[in-house]
């Protein structure tokens, strides 16, 4: 690849890194528009690159075709999703497409420490508290790939599912994060049927279904 191609590739890497860094502080719609721009930029790289030692010959139809495919398959869906109110960059067309997605089970919203204490007193069984935010990519991955897994859903159906949405980072959000010594989402805390936290069973960051099931099995096996 010649200097022009290398420069284009470097610019794409820097753009992707920049989008990733600012993701936590920008709205989801803006995230999706920026990812659309990044995908479009990546798709243009093959057309600008040249193979060294071949008299400046381009990467050919295959490379340019791959670039066009990237632009068509990634950029438009992200842009459409941004303008259609989608909340998940991993499923940009969920709001406008009839395609079926396996969905995560519903969570009960918790907004204050008092809400949490009251709900844990009446749970009567193991409970799971999920810290979530719209700008949290790992939260989206947990929802899309882990919570929606059929085996995971079956186990979650036996628990009380609670969620703290810290997208707005309100004082109550900060208080709940501080209570559990969390810096931010994603973070999952488990409780037994008496409302006591199950020690050593927190999940921090993304976990694939197979690993997450192990945590759920431990929570289910806790005896009062």
Brief characterization of the structure:
This protein has 224 residues and is of the alpha/beta class. It has helices at 3-22, 28-48, 60-84, 113-123, 137-146, 150-156, 171-179, 209-221; strands at residues 108-109, 127-132, 160-165, 187-191, 203-204. It folds into two domains: 3-84; 108-221, Glutaredoxin, CATH 3.40.30.10.
Query: Helix count?
Result: 8
Strand content: 5-15%
Instruction: Name the CATH superfamily classification of the largest domain.
Output: Glutaredoxin
Q: How many domains in all? A: 2
| Unreliable stretches covering 5 or more consecutive residues | 96-101
Task: Please state the second-level CATH architecture of the largest domain.
Answer: 3-Layer(aba) Sandwich
Apparent shape:
globular
Helix content: 40-55%
* Overall pLDDT metric: 76
User: What do we call the CATH topology of the largest domain?
Assistant: Glutaredoxin
Number of strands: 5
Biggest sheet character: 5 strands, mixed
Descriptive account of the structure:
By secondary structure, the protein is an alpha/beta fold. It folds into 2 domains: 3-84; 108-221, 3-Layer(aba) Sandwich (Glutaredoxin). The protein is built from 8 helices and 5 strands, in the order αααβαβααβαββα. The protein has helices at 3-22, 28-48, 60-84, 113-123, 137-146, 150-156, 171-179, 209-221, and strands at residues 108-109, 127-132, 160-165, 187-191, 203-204. A 5-stranded mixed sheet has the order 1-3-2-4-5. The protein starts with a helix and ends with a helix.
